UniProtKB/TrEMBL annotation:
<dbReference type="Pfam" id="PF07336">
    <property type="entry name" value="ABATE"/>
</dbReference>
<feature type="domain" description="Zinc finger CGNR">
    <location>
        <begin position="153"/>
        <end position="196"/>
    </location>
</feature>
<dbReference type="InterPro" id="IPR023286">
    <property type="entry name" value="ABATE_dom_sf"/>
</dbReference>
<dbReference type="Pfam" id="PF11706">
    <property type="entry name" value="zf-CGNR"/>
</dbReference>
<dbReference type="InterPro" id="IPR021005">
    <property type="entry name" value="Znf_CGNR"/>
</dbReference>
<protein>
    <submittedName>
        <fullName>CGNR zinc finger domain-containing protein</fullName>
    </submittedName>
</protein>
<dbReference type="InterPro" id="IPR010852">
    <property type="entry name" value="ABATE"/>
</dbReference>
Length: 204
């Protein structure tokens, strides 16, 4: 990936939104929707939606060839595989073989290729830019994450019933929440209420 800044704004179907930084583009991609009960969070409804997501920073891989329905299907399969193995690693379970195979298959395809611009100081992705290439780059990043030094830092948010996963790349490695403004603040509020309730009990 060409930039270190990650994170996207996630929207709750019931209303509200917050910025969630999963710490890696591949994990950000895993949170674009889902299957089963997570289908209500779907954002990739058609091929154009996938193209728009890939065009956003930090990947900034706007397809120069129209995204196809098969690429959208492959993207959703890769997304689900990343989601599954990220939770496997966060829960210290063996990685699901079927999901590993999907990630490896996506990574085997040609990836995005950086190309130096004429000014010699900036770069872009070599054209034509295809969605399949971007998906390959995302899969390769997930492989690097799972096999690298931060593999043990892949975690699920400690909030009640929050399934979001992230990689904690901070120096102290103490991140617990998807976002302080969401689950972190909810935890603080519950702890404050519990302390106040305890103080009232002591006074009675």
């Amino acid at each position: 990936m060409r930039a270190s800044t990650t994170g996207r704004v996630l929207h709750d179907p019931k209303g509200g939104s917050f910025r969630f930084d999963a710490g890696a583009v591949c994990l950000d991609f895993a949170h674009t929707g889902g299957e089963g009960r997570y289908a209500v969070f779907e954002t990739l409804h058609d091929p154009g939606d996938l193209g728009e997501w890939l065009a956003e920073p930090p990947l900034s891989a706007a397809p120069t060839v129209p995204v196809t329905g098969s690429e959208l299907k492959a993207g959703k399969a890769l997304r689900q595989a990343i989601w599954v193995v990220a939770h496997d690693r966060a829960d210290d379970r063996p990685l699901t073989p079927e999901s590993v195979a999907i990630i490896n298959r996506a990574a085997a395809a040609p990836a995005l290729a950086p190309e130096l611009n004429a000014d010699g100081t900036t770069a872009a992705w070599a054209q034509p830019v295809q969605a399949a290439q971007a998906l390959s780059s995302i899969a390769r990043e997930m492989i690097e994450l799972l096999s690298g030094p931060l593999a043990g830092r892949i975690r699920q948010c400690a909030g009640d019933n929050c399934p979001l996963v992230f990689v904690d790349s901070s120096r102290p490695g103490a991140r617990r929440w998807c976002a302080m403004e969401r689950c972190g603040n909810r935890h603080k509020l519950r702890a404050l209420r519990a302390r106040r309730a305890g103080d009232r009990d002591l006074l009675n």
